[in-house]
Task: structure prediction
Amino acid sequence: LAGIGITPQVAYASPELFDKMEGKFRGKGLVKANAKGKQEAIRCRMSNKIILNGKKLDIGGSCAVSGFIFSLNGFIEQTGGNSYRASMFRSLASIKQSSFGGKRSGSGINFSFKATDRISKRPINASIKMNIKSDKAFDVVINRTDPKTGKNFSVGTLNFVKR
Result:
């Protein structure tokens, strides 16, 4: 996504959210690639850095599931009071989507978007919820619709802990 002009009066996410997500993290959880698929263990490593005077969290890392390793490179950027944009986790959600928007909700950010399923090429709806658990932990909950039925299913939850 291209940058959106930000006025000086905007209250930025850091330190409330971004400061708690900055640093090196390890994550693990169970995920499934489709609604009828079996859950598989996933492990991730992530290194996050606050940039642009606290307005943006740069995300770098990788995950491994079933012998497949993929990148988590991307960002989360606050574009206004409760508004965010991001590019991340697209491989994990099995979608072809480079960026999307979200809103802050309590101690987390909820991203919702429309995308195209990588395999069927059909449209889907997806959501990624990032929840701050403490100064050293957060989780990522991923849901999406099945392209065949249109019904929502849980891709999985990843729990990240600062290393």
